[in-house]
Amino acid sequence: MAEAHQAVAFQFTVTPDGIDLQLCHEALRQIYLSGLHSWKKRFIRFKNGVMTGVYPGSPAGFMVVVVSYMSYNKYKQLDPSLGLIAKLVGGVLVGTGLWVTIIMIMRNVLKSLLSWHGWMHARHGSVSWSTRLWMLLVKVFSGRKPMLYSFQNSLPRLPVPSVKDTCRRYLESVRALMDDEQYERMKGLTKDFEKNLGPKLQWYLKLKSWWASNYVSDWWEEYIYLRGRGPIMVNSNYYAMDFLYVFPTSIQAARAGNAIHAIMLYRRKLDRAQIKPRMFNTTRIPGLETAQYERMFNTSRVPGVDTDILQHMNESKHIAVFHKGRFFKVWMFYDGRLLLPREIEQQMERILADKSEPLPGEENLAALTAGDRTPWARARETYFSRGKNKQSLDAIEKAAFFVTLDDTEQRFEPDNPVKSLDSYAKSLLHGKCYDRWFDKSFNLIVFKNGTMGLNAEHSWADAPIIGHLWEHVLSMDPVKLGYTEDGHCCGEPHPNLPGPQRLQWDIPAECQDTIQSSLTLARTLADDVDCHIFPFDDFGKGLIKKCRTSPDAFIQIALQLAHYRDKGKFCLTYEASMTRLFREGRTETVRSCTMETCAFVRSMIRDETVRLNSTEKHQNMYRLAMTGQGIDRHLFCLYVVSKYLGEDSPFLKEVLSEPWRLSTSQTPLQQVELFDLVRHPEYVSSGGGFGPVADDGYGVSYIIVGENLINFHISSKHSSPETDSHRFGANIKQAMLDILDLFQLEKKAM
């Protein structure tokens, strides 16, 4: 974890003369800058909305017309309206004021309604009268047809939990992982922090929460992602897979044509805010935070010596394509329109047919994005800040997104399921370490045999955002866009379409040495990754629901049982939860290894009669995380404040240094209406995954597909003697089966 800069801000000391106020600026300056950044983003959104609404006119043109008209009338002493203008203006002003007042009232009422989360506590399948009334009021005050960003100004701010509550929940979360002596020691550190330093740090955090849109998100983005100096490949970037059992075409250029066209259609809908807002699963009422969508396209992470930045372009009309060591710039528009799938396929065919050799240093150039950030930043400043290198780098960094026409074949093979899926996952996660531009917001990877997938950079948004795009692409590709009988995109090639532009480079030997160093480091990291992907089809959420328990909680308990069998011990467990019920919310941690879970696992190991009651605890923790009452983001922000204040906290230092040896995440299926999962459950993504968080730990991602399939993605490191992804996968499968046996569904059916 990146450490915040040490600084000192307000310090209060009680003296015989009263209160001595010492003012040092850094902490307050950082709080001020966070708020300023929030207000700038709001202003830009407001400005863009106004500019779009009056186009092709402009506010400046409006002022020129009004001022010119008033000046001319004053000079000529004319009143063309014969007194009607005064009445008209008065009516317009009063009406406008009334309209704005109604809007503000509705917005604040909606914000108050969205601050209520009582609907989360209802039993599955039952809706209370209070929830029904709440749903009705939300629908009334939401307007008739909300657009993607309609709820942004109505979402409540993320609340700051009390230090006392966070400390209490923290102690509760680690009790199962510590012996009595360790726990008493940590309890003493916690109580000392809660009594002494905690309230002081909390004061600054409260101040930030009043001023900024979200007291966590900007610091989380900066310190967790952008200030990290290690490789983002494997450590940060994640991947998404294609269909598992469906192969729409084996023609690489054709698959790329449909996928790229579908992605560009999504971008157009996004630019026009025509994408439907996400809905609460329980209530089917829209109202999730959508700001993360703004940087999905035309965005690149730009390296810096100390910290990276996210560069976002308002518009980009081209994509960047990599094939066999060469980079190409491909325009997506011709004659003022978006290229059709067959025309994009035509462009990809031209790239595939290009037999030119890579320029010196070009083939492995993208390895700079796979290695450490500081050498890449220095090389970028030294060798890519002028001339043809700058122009070519701009073409990549300012592209809508990056495409790799991979020269390998990846696919699920029924005759060799384990090896084929593991190879497929590793290729999406890191490839050859030089054939993905890991800094782009996302890479579309199309393999030689037509299979495809995504690799996404993490700092700009979380996985559900890119997942929303990917569902759109997969739903359009084989069904709505389709292919001809011979596997090509529908339509005809364009006879006059200009070809792709080959990017030019002049990379000196010194830069090539840096590229080679980054490639060597990246290959060492990639070779150490142990990936295992397996479809679990013994049962799915359909059978789990018959057990009257949450599918996610069921899987999390199974992961705890599997981990104990795998390593013989429990560990600190990270489960990703979202906080998108709040403005600019991102994620929170659910600490899934609880006292209840451990008691259940121990009973299972001893083969005792047990009752699965730990799922209720898990669901309650998940609700707390989603509603802003989590543990880890609050402690993280308190730690950042402590660094700005120059205060050393043994409690916070120890908490934030604890390794997550089991890191888990569910890939949600968000647009179920796009897929006919009853008749065609195979027509959905097989999910995605990420690298291990700890050197001696596991990363586990899972997606619940339809009623009868759960796909697991497991990662670890070969270098650790404690881990083995395939062994852990076998333990997960057995744990799922063993827990299901507890419910004795067969006997109940009889």
Q: What's a concise summary of this model?
A:
It is found in: Mitochondrion outer membrane. The protein is α+β, with helices and mostly antiparallel strands and 750 residues long.
Structural commentary:
With about 750 residues, this protein is of the alpha+beta class. Among the domains are: about 300 residues, 2-Layer Sandwich (Chloramphenicol Acetyltransferase); about 190 residues, Chloramphenicol acetyltransferase-like domain (Chloramphenicol Acetyltransferase, 2-Layer Sandwich). The protein is about 45% helix and about 15% strand. It has 23 helices and 20 strands. The strands form 5 sheets. The chain has an 8-stranded mixed sheet with strand order 13-7-6-10-11-12-3-18, with helices on both faces. Strands 14-20-19-17-15-16 form a 6-stranded mixed sheet. Strand 15 and strand 16 form a beta hairpin. The N terminus is likely disordered.
Beta strand count: 20
Kindly report the CATH topology of the domain at 232-527: Chloramphenicol Acetyltransferase
Mean pLDDT: 86
What is the percentage of strand-forming residues? 5-15%
Query: Which CATH architecture of the domain at 232-527 is right?
Result: 2-Layer Sandwich
Q: How many helices? A: 23
Question: Given the C-alpha coordinates, what overall shape results?
Answer: globular
Structural class: alpha+beta
Major sheet attributes: 8 strands, mixed
Unreliable residue stretches: 1-23, 51-58
Pathway: Lipid metabolism; fatty acid beta-oxidation
GO biological process, one term: fatty acid beta-oxidation
Domain Carnitine O-palmitoyltransferase N-terminal: 1-47
Pfam family, one: Carn_acyltransf
